[in-house]
Amino acid sequence: MRVAPARACAYRVVRRVFEQGAYADRALHAESATLVERDRRLAMALTYGTVQRRATLDYVAGRLSSRPPEEIDPPVLAALRLGLFQLLLLKGVADHAAVNDSVELAKPAGASFVNAVLRRAAREGHAILDELDDETPAHAAILHSIPVWIAELWWEQLGPEQARALMRRCNEPAESAIRVNALVSTTEQVKGELPLTSYPAPGLPEGLVLDGAFDAHGSVLSERGAIMPQSRGSMLVARMLDPQAGERVLDLCAAPGAKTTHVSALMMGDEGEIVAVERHPGRAKSLAATCARMHADNVRIEVGDAATYGAQGRFDRVLVDPPCSGLGTLQARPDLRWRASSEAIERVATLQRRVLANGAAAVRPGGTLVYSVCTISRVESSDVVEALLRTDPSLELEEEVQLLPHRDGTDGFFIARLRRYPKTQ
To answer: pTM to 2 decimals?
Structure first.
C-alpha cells in the first residue's frame, strides 16, 4: 500500500531528527523539496508536531503498551509517534488514514505492534490525555511536552501561572513576521505584493505580521532584498540600539545578519560604518552575501572571535548578540527543547559574559551598549548584565526588556540597553 507523500516525508524527517541528530527545519527542507505545496504544509505540521510533542506521545504509548518507548526499535517508534500525533493532537486527519499509513511505515517488523497500539489509542487515547494536568513542573512537562528541567526553570523564574501559559504557547505555531527593508521598499509596497494578509507591527514601522505561514526566504521579495523574515522580538533589538546615520557601530556575533542589516537600514545604508564580527569564515561569507542582497553598503565584515576581538578605536554603539540556549524560540525550532540542557546553559553563560565585557570595552564615553539573547533564562540574561555592571561602574543600565511568547506574541527575547558615562561626569 502506498503511503501518502506528506506522511512518508514526515516519517523520514522524524527518524533523521531522533536517530541522526538532524535539525528538523533543515531535514524537512531537504526531504520535502519535491512535494507540492499542500503536501509540504502537511509534512511540516506532522514533523514539527511529532517532534515537539515527543514526551506526551511517549507517555501515551507507555500507557497503551507493555513496552516502554526506549525499548522500541527507533524506526517503529517513529511510525508510532507519527500515528499517535495524528490521532490525538492533529485536527482534520481521518483515524483510518493515520493508522493505515503508520502501520505501513512500520513494516515489516513493527506493523502488528503499531497497529495494535494505534487502534487502542483511537479508543482510549483522548481519555488518557484528559487525565493529565500541569499542577507541578513534572506533570506540566508531560502535558506540554517540555523537558522537566525547563519546566522547573520557568516555574521558579516566572511562577506557576506564567510558566504554564508559556509552555502551552511553545506548542503553537510561531509568529509569522517580516521586516521590510527601507533601503529597497516600503511597507505599503510590500503589503501589496504579499500573497496573504499582513498587519503593521506596533512600534515597529518596518515590521509586518502575517496571517499565516509564508516562505519568505524563497520569495521574490527576499531575492531582491525587500524583506527579511524576522520576529518582532528580533526587530526590537536594533530599535533599542537606536543607531544614527554617520555613527560608528560594532556588531559582535553578527551572522546570519538579520540584526546587522536592520541596523544598516536604520543608518540609511551608506552613512557611517558598521563593523560586523563573525568567528566562522563560512558564516562570515554568508553574512557578506546577506548584506549585499539587503543593500547594507556600510557594513565591513571582519572574521574574529567576539570574546577576544580587539576593536580599533571606540564605537558610538555596540551590539552584543552572542550564542545562547534559544529557549525563547521553541515554537519555531521544534527539536531545540530536546537538544538543550542546563549544563549547556551554564557553559554558554560563561561565553556570554566574556563577549559582553569585550563589547563594553569598545563603547566610547557617552556611547550605547545593547545586549540581546533569544532566551528565557535568568543566568543568560539579567545575571550576565549584572556581572558586567559589578565590574564596570562607568556603565549604567537604561532599559531592560524580557519578551515572553505567551504574553507578547513573539519570540522570547531579553534585551538590555546600557550607557557609558561621559568623561565629564
So the answer is: 0.94
